[in-house]
Structures are given as C-alpha cells and as structure tokens.
C-alpha cells in the first residue's frame, strides 16, 4: 500500500491517540459509522466507507496540525487550542460535552509552603504543561515576572519535589491535587473537548457529513425519548412540561378523551419531568434511549 498516494484524496481527521479523550473519540466514531481498522502501532488508518483517513496524534499537537492545515478536522481540548494559540486559525465545529475540566492554579494547602491567594505567587516559580496560558495569566495579574517552567506530565509532583511554589494544571474531580497536598486558588480556563476544522478545507461536503453525524451522536447521548398518555384537556400543561425540540408529537387514541404524546427531553432532566407529568395525571410514562439522530 502506498500510504501517501492513498491519503491525497482523503479528508484527514486527527483523533487523540491516548489519554482522557481517546476512548470517547472512538465511541463517537463508531456512533458516526466511521469504519476503519487500525494496524498495531500505526498512527494512520484509512476509513473503509468514507474518503477519510484518521490520524492518531497526541491531543496536545492536534490544534496546531489543524490550524496549519496539515489535517482538516480534529478533536482536542479547548485548552490545547488556546495554549497553542490556534483560536484564530481553527473553527470550532462542535462542543462535544466530554473532557470537561478546569485549568487552575494549585498550591500547597498546608505547611510552611502553603499559599492561599494567587497574588502571593507573583514573582514565584510556576511549573506547568501550559506555559503560554500560565504566562498570560500571571502577566495580567502583575508586571513582575513570574518564572514559568515546562514539564510534560505528573505536574502535581513539582511542589513536593521543591521545583515549584505552585502549578497550573487540569483538574476534574480534584482527587489528583488533593492526593498531592495541593488546593485550587484560581481558575485560569474552563475547557471541554471540541471538534475543530481548518476553515480552508477543500472538500467541504465530507467535512459537513462527518460534523453532522457526530452532532447526531452527541445529541442522541444528551436526549431520551419520553412517551406517555394524558387527558386531551391536560395537553396544554403537558406540552409545557415536554415541549420537545420543535413541538411534541401528539397521536390520538381510540378513546377520544386521551392522547399519546412523544417528545425528546434532556436526559439530565428526565426524572424531574416524569414527576411533573405524573402530577398532571399522565399515565404509562415510558422513557427510551436514542441510539442516533439528526436534528
Ligand atoms: N482529568 C481530566 N478530566 C477531563 N478532561 C481532561 C482531564 N485531563 C485532561 N483532559 C482533557 O484531555 C486533553 C488531553 O489530556 P491527556 O492528559 O488526556 O492527554 P495526554 O497527556 O496526551 O495523555 P496521557 O496523560 O495519558 O499521557 C486535555 O488537554 C484536556 O482537554
Ligand atoms: O482532578 P482529577 O480528576 O484527579 O484529574 C486531574 C488529573 O488529570 C490529568 O492527568 P492525567 O490523567 O492526564 O495524567 P498525567 O498527569 O500523567 O498527564 C491532569 O494532568 C491531572 O493530573
Ligand atoms: Mg495527561
């Protein structure tokens, strides 16, 4: 196989090769029926059923590849787009709703090294994988230079090892930082995984198709389908509780006094919605997962 010739007519789509976003990206691709077989240790995989090639890269490099046009579409964290200064060069096609965390300033919580406010860190030593964002953050805080040093991983160890007075790193549950004796003293950025594209992509139709499919998978994960019966006279109240994305679907029943209602509702609100439907006398309330959709 001549891989370079095979790639020339394909849309290149970068996917994190490891780390927190990898598995979720593979699930998205499966949901979008992007079929491929990745050979062991090979970082490029041709898609069988679309003119697309997947390129497996470290999440930290993806924004730059997309921004410079080497690849056309990619999934990475918003933090990476900001850190690599690509926000003017890439378009955000979709926010994906996973990989949510905060980039935050963390310092020792107790002992002689303890720090409780970020102002006390001006002029001190910061260790991070996010040197650009950290430099900007501390420069805005004070004109005095703060020393910013790069490390590629296990950033949380830097204070205990005497390398830093504080770190700037990603925090989700806070477990890693607690275990390292650190606490958050300032938030630099909220981030989540995003689908980005190069605005100069040649074959827009393939990119559009992929974006629409991925949007469908994400929407299907966020919503469920709620079906129930209620008295026709309670329809105005029912429609307020389940307005649907456009409007609820109403079907007539043999019994003229009742209607069947079907409506997409947010998964995160479904328990509350079922309670409210019960209160207005709805019966036979059923909730179904949605496998896939286009909205
Ligand atoms: N704890 C977390 N919770 C949620 N999202 C995270 C978390 N850590 C990182 N991310 C997101 O995932 C992106 C990639 O980070 P991650 O650390 O998973 O990649 P990596 O450094 O390439 O992998 P690894 O750390 O396994 O070597 C980050 O830029 C951020 O957007
Ligand atoms: O708040 P938490 O839920 O504990 O998550 C935060 C941790 O997740 C990331 O680390 P990762 O797992 O990528 O390991 P790494 O430090 O080796 O990159 C990040 O760098 C933190 O260490
Ligand atoms: Mg990591």
TrEMBL record:
UniProt GO MF annotations: ATP binding; ATP phosphoribosyltransferase activity; magnesium ion binding
Domain ATP phosphoribosyltransferase catalytic: 59-215
HAMAP family, A to Z: HisG_Long
Residue span, Histidine biosynthesis HisG C-terminal domain: 220-292
Chief place of localization: cytoplasm
Localisation per UniProt entry: Cytoplasm
Enzyme class name: transferase
Entry protein name: ATP phosphoribosyltransferase
NCBIfam families, alphabetized: hisG, HisG_C-term
EC number(s) reported in the record: 2.4.2.17
């Amino acid at each position: 196989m001549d891989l370079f010739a095979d790639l020339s007519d394909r849309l290149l789509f970068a996917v994190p090769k490891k780390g927190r976003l990898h598995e979720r990206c593979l699930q998205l691709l499966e949901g979008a029926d992007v079929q491929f077989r990745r050979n062991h240790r090979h970082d490029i995989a041709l898609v069988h059923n679309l003119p697309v090639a997947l390129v497996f890269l470290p999440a930290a490099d993806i924004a730059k590849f997309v921004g410079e046009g080497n690849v056309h579409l990619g999934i990475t964290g918003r933090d990476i787009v900001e850190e690599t200064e690509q926000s003017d060069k890439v378009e955000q096609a979709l926010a994906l709703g996973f990989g949510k965390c905060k980039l935050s300033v963390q310092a020792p919580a107790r002992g002689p090294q303890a720090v409780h406010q970020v102002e006390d860190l001006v002029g001190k030593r910061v260790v991070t994988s996010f040197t650009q964002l950290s430099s900007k953050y501390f420069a805005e805080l004070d004109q005095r230079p703060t020393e910013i040093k790069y490390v590629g991983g296990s950033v949380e160890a830097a204070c205990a090892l005497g390398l830093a007075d504080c770190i700037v790193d990603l925090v989700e549950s806070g477990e890693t930082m607690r275990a390292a004796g650190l606490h958050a003293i300032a938030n630099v950025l909220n981030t989540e995984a995003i689908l980005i594209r190069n605005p100069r992509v040649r074959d827009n139709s393939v990119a559009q198709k992929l974006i629409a499919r991925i949007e469908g998978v994400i929407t299907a994960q966020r919503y469920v389908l709620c079906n129930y019966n209620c008295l026709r006279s309670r329809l105005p109240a029912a429609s307020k509780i389940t307005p649907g994305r456009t409007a609820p679907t109403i079907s007539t029943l043999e019994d003229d006094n009742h209607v069947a209602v079907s409506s997409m509702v947010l998964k995160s609100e479904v328990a509350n919605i079922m309670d409210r439907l019960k209160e207005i006398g709805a019966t036979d309330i059923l909730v179904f997962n949605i496998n896939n959709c286009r909205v």
